[in-house]
Design a protein that fits this description.
The chain is an alpha/beta fold and 361 residues long. It is 44% helix and 18% strand. The N and C termini lie far apart (43 Å). The protein binds nicotinamide-adenine-dinucleotide, the ligand O=C(O)C(=O)C[C@@H](O)[C@H](O)[C@H](O)COP(=O)(O)O and zinc ion. NAD(+) binds at residues 106-110, 130-131, 143, 152. Catalyzes the conversion of 3-deoxy-D-arabino-heptulosonate 7-phosphate (DAHP) to dehydroquinate (DHQ). Pfam families: DHQ_synthase (PF01761), DHQS_C (PF24621).
Length: 361
């Protein structure tokens, strides 16, 4: 089976990618050596489409699963939801010998991973991602957490999964908007590490809703290799995965959580990062246009709505984890496929880049 190993010493794990794998999840978890009872965390949409298949597979493998559903959407990435889930798991008699299975998109993965990191001071968890964002990005790397009204992902823990099970078939039930938003993170990976992928993404026909398994695996490998060298984002390498996220997260937090999807906010953040890369690090107009063209190809938002003010975004953005002693570490591109962390970006630059998003292309 196509497998990417994430090599992190005693926290190493496999990412399995295969069509139809969901129905063999129980067996795959057994083979990975995970033991105990399973607490499945999912959201209402995902559970409706894919819950029964997973539960049957876990039952067949002897994991006696309980199911814990949260409302769909970014609003569920909250501390109150963490507490509710932990209480429900305790009621269902889970303890330190249990493990969590996250069945869902990035919201469920981040939330369930965080629950696993604190329940009984930490239990194992398995990621079964069901959106493009979560299959190519969030299920790998161990960043878990929830939001605060003050900003995105401000509470959390690094907690690596014990196994990641990627079944591209589950993407067939994604609504169109959630399908298109997923490509923002794929385009980000191409922009920071794999310029050759730009042509491959451009060749996809979004109307066919195609998500090739090898494209998913290629993205997982990009993320895995970065996480392996800088698991805790202390060396300025993992930070590259934050391209488009400084302003993107500011926008996502400036509107009510969930009204804009993560990939949609990152699309705007990427446009701003391209603008600043042209201004500050010599990114060619040609490379910039190629990346912007991919975002247009998937009809991702590139114009900031008037009712979201620059002040609101700057206020949320000030809480970003990449601010240190008032200085911003901002990810720029020198060319397509080549990103670096810069400290040359000023507060005025950020304001100008946000204003740039109000202009037509
Ligand atoms: N930890 C990380 O490294 C990392 C990386 C990227 C994103 N994130 C986080 O991930 C979150 C965004 O994740 P997302 O974009 O997957 O959003 P999401 O989890 O909210 O899923 C989007 C919507 O699609 C629905 N859905 C999911 N899978 C489905 C399926 N197969 N069929 C039908 N409907 C389905 C969900 O119910 C939801 O309504 C954000 O909170 C972001 O901060 C984390
Ligand atoms: O895994 C990472 O590292 C990333 O930056 C991936 C991002 O796509 C993701 O949105 C992540 O949650 C952002 O992390 P944060 O530390 O900026 O909150
Ligand atoms: Zn992201």
């Amino acid at each position: 089976m196509p497998t990417t190993r994430v090599d992190l010493g005693d926290r190493s794990y496999d990412v399995l990618v295969e069509k139809g794998l969901l129905s063999q999840a129980g067996q795959a978890i057994q083979q990975a050596g995970v033991r105990g009872r399973a607490a499945v965390i999912s959201d209402a949409n995902v559970s409706r489409h894919h819950g029964a298949k997973l539960l049957a597979s876990l039952e067949a493998a002897g994991f006696a699963p309980s199911l814990h559903e949260v409302p769909a959407g970014e609003g569920s990435k909250s501390m109150s939801q963490v507490e509710e889930l932990c209480a429900a798991m305790a009621e269902a008699k889970h303890d330190r010998r249990s493990f969590v299975v996250a069945l869902g998109g990035g919201v469920v993965g981040d939330l369930a991973g965080f629950v696993a990191s604190v329940f009984y001071r930490g239990i194992p968890f398995v990621q079964i991602p069901t959106t493009i964002v979560s299959q190519v990005d969030s299920s790998v790397g161990g960043k878990t957490g929830v939001n605060l009204p003050q900003g995105k992902n401000l509470l959390g823990a690094f907690h690596q999964p014990a196994l990641v099970i990627v079944d591209p078939d589950v993407l067939a039930t994604l609504p169109d908007r959630e399908y298109r938003e997923g490509y923002a993170e794929v385009i980000k990976h191409a922009a920071i590490r794999d310029a050759a992928m730009i042509a491959d993404i451009a060749a996809l026909d979004p109307s066919t809703r195609e998500v090739p398994a090898d494209l998913i695996a290629r993205n997982i490998a990009i993320k895995a290799r970065i996480v392996e060298v800088d698991e805790h984002e202390t060396k300025g390498i993992r930070a590259l995965l934050n391209l488009g996220h400084t302003i993107g997260h500011g926008i996502e937090a400036a509107v009510p959580y969930g009204s804009m999807l993560h990939g949609e906010a990152i699309s705007l953040g990427l446009r701003a990062a391209l603008y600043l890369s042209e201004k500050r690090s010599g990114l060619s107009k040609e490379d910039s246009a190629k990346i912007l063209g991919l975002l247009q190809h998937f009809r991702l938002p590139l114009i900031l709505e008037d009712q979201i003010t620059t002040e609101q975004i700057l206020h949320k953005l000030g809480r970003d984890k990449k601010f240190e002693a008032g200085k911003i570490r901002f990810v720029l591109l020198s060319k397509a496929g080549d990103a670096f962390v810069s400290d040359a970006v000023t507060a005025e630059d950020l304001q100008e880049a946000i204003e740039h998003l109000r202009h037509p292309l």
